[in-house]
Design brief:
With 384 residues, this protein is of the alpha/beta class. Helices cover 36% and strands 15% of the residues.
């Protein structure tokens, strides 16, 4: 197997983790669609070759590639982004523990932490990732971990991430970060001192809107502990989905770099249009964390959100008039997708709660695809 750690990202995406020699000479990794494998004397239950234990040849190769991309010791795939997030949190936390989380989280993570964890006896405090001086107020003797996102969903905020990892180390916390919106092309959290990186691989890592998957990357010890819990929870990624994710990864760099450039042009167009009241995108000089984004990120990403002068009604009319974007949840694929988070990703939050964290009913979230940027801008212009 090729490690690929001495390669640049584009080369690593193609060659890291690949079997050597190639299996039966196949250039593309074959799909090992077998639920079970011959026993060869494994001494530990978690090492028995079996799909649910995430160790088929498709899993092994994919884990090696993902670990290399994030510069981690080990990686683990799961059946969805939420399977990766929930399993990781429930591996690190137990009844009586306390978690620090940032103010604006993906809706599924928010509901897990604020609603489901209560029944497990796990408490949390919310922190403002822009204000490190306030974080100690949230600490308790039973605080075990801190959880943030590289670029928040859907307000495209970029917190003081260097301070997050330093704060975690200084206070004996495990630091976790959802790197879905940035991808390893734009940011590598482990290089900034984070302990664990999580992804919804459904999005940019796969990039083709045809699977659901999750990823955890970090130290070999932590990932092995999380794997053992996942083995029991059963949130396994099927070998064929592993194959599709493996294939999608190989074009990650070219996809994300196009989306970086396209999203920046679209954000500037929207900011200059009188019908638009506000644009949220880290690449704009008007963004409150623009300087931090420039310092942390290699690119600003393919996600942006914006609000129109007429609120939710204007947003719905715009989405109906736009011809190219597909009105659908999710993100990170080759197709441009558009949605109102109040009706999709954050529909589980009460209206007052959404407003409190800055998500208006008229906020539009845009996932920029691989269409010609000029075609998208022309379409948005006629829709506006």
């Amino acid at each position: 197997m090729t490690d690929g750690r001495d390669m640049r990202l584009e080369t690593m995406l193609i060659h890291a983790g690949e079997p050597s020699p190639r299996i039966a000479g196949a250039v593309a990794m074959p799909v090992f669609q077998s639920s079970t494998f011959e026993f060869t004397g494994q001494a530990d239950y978690h090492d028995i070759r079996y799909i649910r234990l995430n160790n088929t040849p498709n899993h092994v190769v994919l884990h090696a590639k993902l670990a290399a991309l994030e510069n981690g010791e080990a990686a683990l795939v799961a059946a969805s982004g939420m399977a990766a997030i929930s399993t990781t949190l429930m591996t690190l936390l137990r009844t009586g523990d306390h978690l620090l989380v940032q103010k604006c989280l993906y809706g599924g993570t928010h509901d897990l932490v604020t609603k489901d964890f209560e029944s497990f006896g796990i408490s949390h405090s919310v922190i403002d990732v822009d204000d490190p001086s306030s974080w100690k107020e949230g600490l308790r003797p039973n605080t075990k971990a801190i959880y943030v996102e590289t670029i928040t969903n859907p307000l495209i905020q970029i917190g003081d991430l260097k301070s997050v990892s330093a704060f975690a180390k200084a206070n004996g916390l495990t630091s976790m970060i959802d790197n879905t919106f940035a991808s390893p092309v734009n940011f590598r959290p482990l290089d900034q001192g984070f302990d664990l990186v999580l992804h919804s691989a459904t999005k940019y890592l796969n990039g083709h809107t045809d699977i659901v998957a999750g990823v955890v990357v970090g130290s070999a010890k932590l990932v092995e502990t999380i794997k053992h819990r996942l083995d029991h929870f059963g949130g396994t990624l099927d070998p064929h989905a592993c194959f599709l994710l493996h294939r999608g990864l190989k074009t990650l760099a070219v996809r994300v770099r196009h989306q970086n450039q396209s999203a920046l042009k679209i954000a500037r167009f929207l900011e200059d249009n009188g019908a638009v009241s506000r644009v949220h995108y880290g690449g704009l000089e008007s963004h409150p964390q623009h300087d931090r984004a420039r310092d942390l990120l290699s690119g600003f990403g393919g996600m942006l959100s914006f609000e129109l002068q007429g609120g939710a009604e204007a947003a719905d009319r715009f989405m109906q008039r736009a011809r190219l974007p597909i009105v659908a949840p999710s993100l990170g694929g080759v197709e441009t997708l558009i949605t109102r988070p109040a009706t999709t990703s954050h529909a589980g939050l009460e209206p007052d709660e959404r407003r409190r964290i800055g998500i208006s009913d008229g906020l539009i979230r845009l996932s920029v695809g691989l269409e010609a940027t000029e075609d998208l801008i022309e379409d948005f212009a006629q829709a506006l």
